[in-house]
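Hello Y.,

Per our agreement to keep a running log of every chain we model this quarter, I'm adding this entry. I've kept the format consistent with earlier entries: sequence first, then predicted structure.
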Amino acid sequence: MACPGVEESEFNFVSEARLLRCAHYAEAVFVSTASLETKIGGAERDRTVDLLHAMQALFQLSYGPRKGEERRLSSGLRQLESNFSRSSFFGLRRSAEPYHGFALMVTLNDRAVLAFEDGSVFEGFAFGAKRTVVGEGVFNTSMTGYQEILTDPSYLGQIITMTTPMIGNYGVNLEDVESNGPKATGFVCRELSPIVSNWRSSMPLGDYLAEHDIPGISGVDTRAITKLIRVHGALKACLSTEGISAEEAVEKAKNWEGLVGVDYVKEVTTKEIYTYDPGEEIEPFTVPGTQLEGSPERTERFPIVAFDMGVKTNILRKLARHGFDVTVVPADTPAAKVRELNPKGVFISNGPGDPSAVTYAHKTIAELMPDYPMFGICMGHQVITHALGAETMKLPFGHRGGNQPVKNIETGVVSITAQNHGFASTKEALEGCGAVVTEYNLNDQTVAGIRHKDLPVFSVQYHPEASPGPHDSDPLFAHFYDLVAGAAEA
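Predicted structure for the entry above:
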């Protein structure tokens, strides 16, 4: 029996769409033109409409609209909605292992919009929280590690576009977070995986973001978004899952104050001094007989102070594994308080926002620099830059991903590094302030590492702790230990 009010031609494309995985996800039922004719008028019509909506979502996510198929399918679905008086809610859910209760949930009203200050607009599917946010539009080229990226405090104030096409396939677990929850302002992906399959998964990515009030959008052309940012630089952006118009979203993006000159560190730094307790995490995962190495053998442990500018958990974990007892202090802790703690070294962490805005940290680090070995990562590197009297600059679109090549010009070693920053230090100013530039980013020749000419102070513009990313630069923690040990013996 034909569908009342809908021409058969409306569904001709279904059998040609090659949606084999859609059939698998939708409980292995492949809805073809023939099955429509037999099912649509029977008792399973509601289920068939659900499957059609699921197919629409997966078709749009996987292949995008082509040759009018999306228009024809939407037209047919509107007719079905009208004829059968369906509500705006529909979906599929699968509870059997190993899918952890998540297959696919979509709603007719779950549309999202991502708009940029230049007027560019991308419309897609909403997931996560129902909310409208503004932030800096950036992209990340990492193929895995979306959970660590989302929970990295350095992403505060930013709407992240992942260049890897499918995100969410291994879900979210409670162990791999880099802070006490997602810090990114919004999240963008080409395809949100409709299933979760990983033995460590605790929940789907969409549920995790909803729980933490972070909106997401999928089904958009992330290659076009990435190219837009590459060509025009990081742009002010608005992401809405509340159904606002594209025009309203563009205006919100234009009206956002931006990151430059704003202190975001104060939003993520610890409020109180505490001692990091690694617990069982002190020993890394290793396999005997392989290149996966355990913790280095340390005959002595040294107390250090770590300035929390937005520190990632794995940084503290790495410091503990390399022989340090870590006391974490707020970013605005004065030098006198640090001296009271009697550390043997000082570490300055990563963090969000404009490094020029945290002038209180510049002052403190400048006061402590003559007296303690120091190691800075990312924001820490930039704080040391300012403490020396040099400047930082805003990069066009920044470096974000786990595949950034860095060359040490003193050793000739090239490392593949994890990076996440939108600002960089200026070479000429550093060399005029007693610093030696030791490393460069091979993609654009920006400064990636420095050391002081006379003091045991060094810093890098990347993440040696990875998480996510390669471990090429892990020896920097051992180098910091050697500096601290040497100063303690002096």
